[in-house]
Design goal:
Elements (H helix, E strand, L loop, with lengths): L1 H8 L2 H15 L5 H17 L6 H6 L1 H23 L4 H12 L5 H8 L4 H26 L6 H22 L6 H22 L1 H6 L1 H28 L4 H12 L3 H11 L3 H28 L2 H7 L4
Helix pairs in contact: 2-10, 2-15, 3-7, 3-9, 3-10, 5-6, 5-8, 5-12, 5-13, 6-8, 6-14, 6-15, 7-8, 7-13, 8-9, 8-13, 10-15, 12-13, 12-15, 14-15
Length: 309
């Protein structure tokens, strides 16, 4: 009985489903942006617990880090712009904002859950956020005409990377059980899904045709890109633990940042929709990836086939 209960609460999938349902029931609480930022910072602190970094880590993972940057802005950004080109002007602006922002900070936590290379995920995410100081303002200026201030992006670098790094130093001396860490991250994913769906409940129910049209674009961007990236990375003989963060970076954008920036620069309801719907749909697809990497592509299977040789 105890083992069964533990397996349920450490499995992220029911947390995401329940978060979706609860969010649609309670609706917008009015504090979604603040709660999302606090939740992401705490999630990052927990995800970094137990990880040690040094200069050799960057040298060892240099090729994968460069590949991750190209995937985030080249593959994910390019496909997002291509998908967005099929939409009206206001919706196109929303798609541009998704393409311009860096990957989600949750890539690190997601990699941890999928038992991938968390250290590679953290190093690459850090590099992507530093590059975003230039890329995000440039892309918004080119495609929208309004440039995001690099200082605005720098604020998120400090919140999501610098602060968790500082907090993780004293946390290294604290022993945290693996199950406690898993449940903590699950709770934070639940909060993110809940507030995202809740904040957009009214629009979801009032404009179903527009919502479905945007959902279709999100699904193409997420499912097609993730599937192709998995195939390509396998062809490149990239190890399973390294493929996981790279696949997540190809589909998991910082939708919360995109949504905030869209509201600041554009301020139309439709333009916010692509980023508002992307986060929950990425979470739902994350459940599919959990099944895939646990059942269809477990670590033992790759060792047997020679991928981890």
């Amino acid at each position: 009985m105890f083992m069964h209960a533990r397996n349920i609460i450490t499995d992220i999938r029911p947390w995401i489903v329940i978060g979706l349902i609860v969010g649609l029931i309670i609706g917008d609480t009015g504090e979604a942006p603040t709660v999302a930022m606090v939740t992401l910072v705490i999630m990052m602190c927990v995800s970094l617990h137990g990880l040690d970094f040094n200069r050799s880590d960057l040298k060892k993972n240099r090729k994968e880090v460069i590949l991750g940057i190209l995937i985030c802005y080249g593959v994910a950004g390019g496909v997002t712009l291509l998908v967005g080109s099929f939409y009206s002007h206001d919706l196109w602006l929303g798609w541009v904002m998704i393409a311009a922002v860096p990957c989600a900070i949750s890539v690190t936590s997601g990699t941890l859950i999928l038992k991938g290379n968390t250290k590679l995920a953290m190093i690459t995410v850090t590099a992507i956020y530093l590059i975003a100081l230039a890329m995000t303002p440039i892309m918004t200026k080119v495609f929208i005409g309004e440039a995001i201030s690099p200082f605005e992006v720098l604020k998120y670098v400090a919140l999501f990377i610098v602060i968790p790094f500082i907090v993780s130093v004293p946390l290294r001396k604290v022993a945290i059980n693996a199950n406690v860490k898993a449940v903590s991250i699950n709770i934070m994913f639940f909060v993110l899904v809940c507030i995202t769906f809740g904040a957009n409940r009214e629009f979801i129910f009032s404009e179903p045709k527009t919502v479905l049209w945007v959902v279709a674009g999100c699904l193409v961007r997420i499912i097609a890109v993730a599937s192709v990236m998995e195939i390509v990375l396998r062809w490149m003989r990239t190890k399973r633990d390294s493929r996981i963060p790279l696949v997540l970076m190809s589909i998991w954008k910082n939708s919360a940042l995109a949504m905030s920036m869209t509201m600041i620069l554009i301020s139309t309801t439709e333009s916010v929709l692509p980023s508002a719907l992307s986060l929950p749909l990425e979470m739902i697809w994350f459940m599919v990836l959990i099944w895939y990497y646990q059942k269809r592509c477990p670590p033992e299977e790759e060792k047997a086939s020679g991928y981890d040789a």
